[in-house]
Each structure stands twice: as C-alpha cells, then as structure tokens.
Design goal:
The chain is built from twelve helices and 18 strands. By secondary structure, the protein is an alpha/beta fold. Strands 3, 5, 6, 9, 10, 17 and 18 form a seven-stranded mixed β-sheet that branches. Strands 13-12-11-14-15-16 form a six-stranded parallel β-sheet, sandwiched between helices. The chain has a three-stranded antiparallel β-sheet with strand order 2-1-4, with helices on one face. Helix 5 (152-162) crosses helix 6 and helix 5 crosses helix 11 (300-312). The protein is globular. Residues 44, 46, 68-69, 153-154 line the site of one zinc ion.
Amino acid sequence: MSTIKKTMSAAVLYGPHKVVIEERPVPTIGEAEVLVQVAAAATCGTDLKVFHQGGHARMIAPPAVFGHEWSGTIAAVGAKVIGFLEGMRVVANNSAPCSRCYYCHRSLPNLCDDLLFVNGAYAEYLAVPARLVCTNLLALPPTVSFPVACLTEPLACVLHCLDHAVLHPGDTLVVNGDGPSGLMLSAMAKQRGARVILCGRAPQRLTLAKQFGADEVVNYAAVPDQAAAVRELTTARRGADVAIEAVGRPEVWETTVAMLRKGGQAIFYGGCPQDTQVHLPTRPLHYDQLALQGVFHNTPYHVRLALSFLADGKWPWDSLLTHTLPLSQLCDAFDLMLRRQTLKVTILP
Ligand SMILES: [Zn+2]
Ligand SMILES: [Zn+2]
C-alpha cells in the first residue's frame, strides 16, 4: 500500500455561506470500500445551492464535507473489492441506487427509494462506499483528463433527460438555459439529430453554445417575448417540438410550455427552489395536447454512456471548466458562480 497521510485538507460546511478548510482525519475504509485520492473536483449549481442554504434537505446536514463531482486515483482498496486496484484512475457518480426497491425493479433506479448520495469531493481523500463501488465507480479511459472526468455525473443527468424527449430527426428542440447543463443538453440533442435552439442571456455563453451544437441562439434579455422569439425561428411559427427547462425557475418552466407547437413536449430538467409552484394555462394543455415531463437525476446506464461521450472527444468538454482554483479558495469559486462569471470551476485539492 502506498503511503497515505493520516490527515487531509477538507472543506467543511457549517451553515449558510460558512465553509472552513480544515485538517480532518483521512477516512478509513471497510473491506468492500475504496479510498480515492481526489485529483480534481468540479463545482456544480447544486453545490452553490448547498453553500447558500447551508445544507441540503436530502443529502447534507451540516457540519459536513460536500462536493459531488470528482475524479481521482485509488489510494487503497478493501480486501473484498473486486475489479479495482491501487493506482487506478477512476471516476464515480454521486449516487448509487439500492437495486432492491420497487423503483429499481421497474428500471427506474433514479427514483430509488433508498438512493445513496455520496458527498465530500472538496477534500484530498474520499471513501467510496460499497454500494457505489458496485454500481457507479468506473475506470477512467486514458483519453479523459481528471477535470473533464468530473463532468460524468452532470452529463449522465443530461443523457437521462434526453431519453425522455420524443424526438424525430430534424425536430426543433429548445434548451432554455445557458449554464453547463444547457450547453451539454444542446450538444447531446444535436448528436441525436435535433435542430437546436438555445436560449440564454450571457453573450459569451451564447457564442460557446454554437460549439455545443446550437443551430440558433436567442438572447432572451434582448427580446420582448422569449416564446415568440423562439416561434419566429420555427416553420410557420409553429413552435418547438420539444422544449427543455434547464434553469430551475418557475417562470422559465412557464415560458418553456409557452413555446411549444401543438402536441409538443416540455421537459422540466431544472430543479426549482423548494415549495415553488407554476401556473399553466389549461386551454393549450388540453386543446393543443401538450405533454409535460419532469425528469430527475441519472441511472447507472447513463453514467457509463456519459463517460463514453467524454472519451470520444467530439465536443469541447474542457471549455465548460472555465476556471481552476485550489481547495483553499473554494469560497472564491462560489463567488465566481454567484456572479455568473464561470461555468464550472475545477477545484484542485
Ligand atoms: Zn452536480
Ligand atoms: Zn432502489
């Protein structure tokens, strides 16, 4: 076994906007677990929410380590672990389904009643629990860098989302949102043969969207009516075949529905703040036969698919990682995100 330090630096969340970089014991592992030395972690909108709220209802009760998009090298392997060796480059999803509940048995592992979430990427080491080792820990292909590998989890969510889209070749799909997820949705929808329109408000991101498959972009800050601007870009102003909400704001959910053609489909990808509601007009829902689809998270299948798309190098994945900061400056990373000056920050422990 290589030498592992006894203590490590880790970011500990104590409450809203209270993060302290502390010296903590390196986690010990059980016989079915794996210890990973984190090589890179990426910031995510969810982490920003966690930083803001000082925790997460389902995943994180402070004081706690957090961060969930990471890649690294295996530092130690439990005696009963099969298929993983010390020194292997790996990446994992942030969750693992139970494989036993009603939803797992119905091929809906993203809705697992006992979904295990793993946090603690903003640290030098991370213990990977047995269930995650079995379901969602993957060896990293040599062509995928550690920072790009951190995109595995969010890209898996994007691919899972698009599996719910009823898309025919040449259909117009609208992505509402110019964040990392919006850009990944654009690329993967293009890959599936859609004509993609991306709506956002940051000029730099809208330029980048063209590299991520967008055929047209709409700067919604520059038009009086976003839904009308989208219709203008469709044949006979019919509207979108499929429109995805990738922001997580109730008013954008409503706009997403407003831009559909008759028989069109809205997909709600962005999670809104707790206890929010949307108001939708009943007439088009009924007479225009609109379909509304919520989606959540990802599945082990999509985690593997995501890694294969990261490995094939067709898309400029590394341009989603706009900044790199050491762990000691994690709060600066959140500040950059709050000011919308970064897509994702690579955190180096
Ligand atoms: Zn994430
Ligand atoms: Zn389950």
